[in-house]
Amino acid sequence: MSSTNLDYEHMSQRREKLPQDVCRLIMQGRQAKGLSQKDLASKICEKPQVIGDYEAGRGIPKDQILAKIERIIGIKLRGKNRGMPLETMGKKK
Q1: Cα distances (Å, whole numbers) of residue 51 to 10, 12, 35, 42, 91
Q2: Count of CB atoms within 10 A of residue 38's CB?
Q3: pTM of the predicted model, to two decimals?
Q4: Distances from the Cα of 61 to the Cαs of 2, 20, 26, 65, in angstroms?
Q5: What average pLDDT values come out for the chain (93 residues) when binned by 10 residues?
Q6: Cα(39)–Cα(82) distance, integer angstroms
Q7: HTH cro/C1-type domain spans which residues (predicted)?
Q8: What domains does the chain contain, in order, with CATH numbers?
């Protein structure tokens, strides 16, 4: 394996921290659904500490985890439509 491949693999594994607005969206969405961190964690098969870390900006969830959270709380957490309700996504008037 060349050093170029190693450098690329290292860079692809490095991710920036979760943006603060996403942290707030997770917390607000969870609370709006009446869920505790433990409840949300259970619904996405994760530990409650993981949700706490995400909400505090300490954790960097994978896209598949964000997708699960989006479905549970009903709010888009990724992309340009971040913060929009999921049910309005893709509907044309």
Answers
A1: 26, 24, 11, 10, 30
A2: 13
A3: 0.76
A4: 29, 13, 12, 6
A5: 42 64 96 98 95 90 90 95 81 49
A6: 23
A7: 30-80
A8: 20-78 (1.10.260.40)
